[in-house]
Specification:
The chain is an alpha+beta fold. It is built from 7 helices and 9 strands. The longest helix is centred in the middle third of the chain and has 17 residues.
Length: about 240
């Protein structure tokens, strides 16, 4: 075949240029530029095409010889089928610019349809998550907790923490941290789930809102009859800017 473009397109005759670019870990614009210029791309691109198609590298670069010199037609079909299975087991994930993403660099934390400030407790064990949110593994394990199974994301409801945590904010809750020190915590008080600023005092917790319309109150840690539980520490929040 005369051109590099012809050779690549012949490897996947049923795929568009966009799909071929996705398959080999490139952007559409990047692959189109190579095709337009008629140049042989860099080694990484050649190796990616070779690995995903099983074609001969010399043929790919020069057009000399056969694309699959060591395989007959049946063998090629079997190899292609095996390759497709391998690719489906390990799909290539790309960012918005078409760059490959290493999923091992991320932790996927469940996001629940639960509001912190009102509700019926914190039934994480029985709730199914709506979806997962991705966080950098390095940040989670080095600055939050290594017990990643004890993390969840929920939503803030109401205006009691307005200015610090606003209505609709997503918050990352660390359920491994239930011995409160000064900071933001999710608490269950009776049947209400609330998020407040907590100040640790001898034998008690001072629970404060950011909104001055809400009065602070204390929790006596030595009073066994109180229906209070420390759900976890707030480690992060995410907000939509309106």
């Amino acid at each position: 075949m005369d051109t590099f473009k012809d050779r690549v397109l012949s490897l996947w005759p049923d795929l568009s240029v966009t799909k071929i670019a996705d398959k080999i870990g490139m952007t559409y614009m990047g692959l189109s530029k190579i095709f337009k210029n008629g140049h042989i791309p860099k080694a990484e691109t050649l190796l990616s095409i070779h690995e995903h198609s099983g074609c001969d590298l010399k043929w790919l670069m020069t057009g000399e010889g056969e694309p699959f010199p060591n395989q007959n037609k049946a063998g090629t079909a079997a190899s292609t089928s095996s390759l497709k299975t391998k690719e489906s087991d390990n799909p290539i994930v790309l960012d918005t610019l078409g760059n490959p993403v290493n999923l091992e660099e991320f932790v996927f934390i469940p996001r629940y349809d639960i509001n912190a400030s009102a509700g019926n407790g914190f039934p994480i064990d029985t709730e199914n998550p709506l979806f997962c949110m991705a966080f950098r593994r390095y940040w989670i394990e080095n600055y939050v907790t290594t017990q990643i199974e004890k993390l969840s994301v929920i939503t803030v409801k109401g205006d009691s923490m307005e200015g610090v945590l606003n209505h609709g904010d997503n918050i990352l809750v660390n359920h491994a941290d239930t011995n409160p020190r000064d900071g933001l915590y999710v608490l269950r008080v009776n049947n209400d789930l609330i998020v407040k600023r907590v100040q640790a005092l001898p034998g008690r917790l001072l629970v404060k809102s950011a909104n001055p319309e809400y009065e602070p109150f204390e929790i006596n840690l030595n009073h066994d009859q109180q229906d209070v539980a420390i759900i976890g520490r707030v480690e992060w929040f995410g907000r939509t800017i309106n």
